[in-house]
């Protein structure tokens, strides 16, 4: 598996070239997206058909998170990170 879009260089630029920070940021955001999608899916099942739900869930939460990080929609507070022990 490889990241094609967005490019890994773009993602690392958003996290000061720290691949561990990138993984943490992306996984936390993907977890939030997954929780939101789960809640939306439960509500949508009552209102929509299965085909409409499948179309809406086309992208994986981690792919969405990487896209948000690359665009700068998701960021972190560098002051809150202990560089020595993060």
Explained architecture:
It contains four helices and no strands. The protein has helices at residues 8-14, 19-47, 50-56, 61-71. The protein starts with 7 loop residues before the first helix and ends in a 15-residue tail after the last helix. The model has no long low-confidence stretch (mean pLDDT 78).
Task: Name some characteristics of this structure.
single chain; 86 residues; mainly alpha; 4 helices; 0% strand
Q: Quick one: overall form?
A: elongated
Distance linking N and C termini: 26 Å
Name the beta content range.
under 5%
Question: What does the average pLDDT come to?
Answer: 78
Query: Multimeric state of these chains?
Result: single chain
Rounded Rg: 15 Å
Secondary-structure blueprint:
Layout lengths: L7 H7 L4 H29 L2 H7 L4 H11 L15
Compact description:
The chain is built from 4 helices and no strands. The protein has helices at residues 8-14, 19-47, 50-56, 61-71.
